[in-house]
Amino acid sequence: MSTPDHDAGDAAPPAWRRRLHRAAVAALAVVGLLVAVVAADTTVLLHRSPTVDVKAPGSVDGTAYLLLASDSRGRLTGEDAKRYKDAAQADGERADLVMVLRSPAKGEPELLSIPRDLFVGAGSATPHRFGMALQRGPQAMVDSLCDDLGIGVDHVAVLDFTGLVDLVDAAGGVTVRTEGPTFDRHAGLYLKRGGTHRLDGHEALAWVRSRNARVQVGGKWWRPKDFDRTRTTHAADVIGQATRGLRSPARLQAAAWTVGPQTRRDTRLELRGLTQLALDLRYAVGHGRVRTVPVRLTRTTVPVAFPTAQTAAALEPFRTSTCRRHR
């Protein structure tokens, strides 16, 4: 019987195992480098997003975000400044879109869309249309949301006027459908046929902002009575499609670089919160967990939406104990 030259436990590993070991070490080194690069890149991206000081009352259960889209042209430059110049537009900013994303500790994320023209504060010294509060800054929006509607939030994010344009373009566009040719000169919406449309960023912004569209059906032009109310529905759909379109790392990074500087966030909304916000927003829209607050809309020179019993019922699940006036 032959005796081995050395114990099996001391045997040198075969060549294929040595090559595999070296490959694994190299792969780990590459992964480590990528993580370091991504971390550094993420830090840069985060610091490209301006911050605002906001004292939020909190939501108690989980996390709630107040998401606003500003109508201010003050930060527009170049072609966008020309494209969206509006002599009738007052200085300052108002909230073009208002949404509350609630992510409970247990349960599924849900998105609430609140009409910007909702008349609030009737029993206070400062009655106003809800979106007008942004003229006094994001803090005023947080305060009005709590004092007038009973909803407390933990974080705030404000998207500048053309932020949606860059978001949609980074995602490769969005798809909408109309009954017939649809036009809204003031919003810059020109869809020359009915059916399915693939919109770029500028077209998507016009679709979201349109409140006086005219639609041609059966050879006749008419104005849908609920088109103004669908603005928030259109916004939720467009944002949902855009977030779903940002699944590739390249597109996600492109969106972060272009949209980041156009998104103001509260000082406590850091990387982890922004990531969770994106995931929860995608989930809520993707699973149809979007509510639009019903109101009684008046078609006057200055549109005003008045609250009804249905308005209160839609707001109730989002109300928090941190805003005691409504509890």
From TrEMBL:
Belongs to the LytR/CpsA/Psr (LCP) family. Gene3D superfamilies: LCP protein. Residues 94-214 form the Cell envelope-related transcriptional attenuator domain. It comes from Pedococcus cremeus. NCBIfam families: lytR_cpsA_psr (TIGR00350). Pfam families: LytR_cpsA_psr. This is Transcriptional attenuator, LytR family. PANTHER family: POLYISOPRENYL-TEICHOIC ACID--PEPTIDOGLYCAN TEICHOIC ACID TRANSFERASE TAGU.
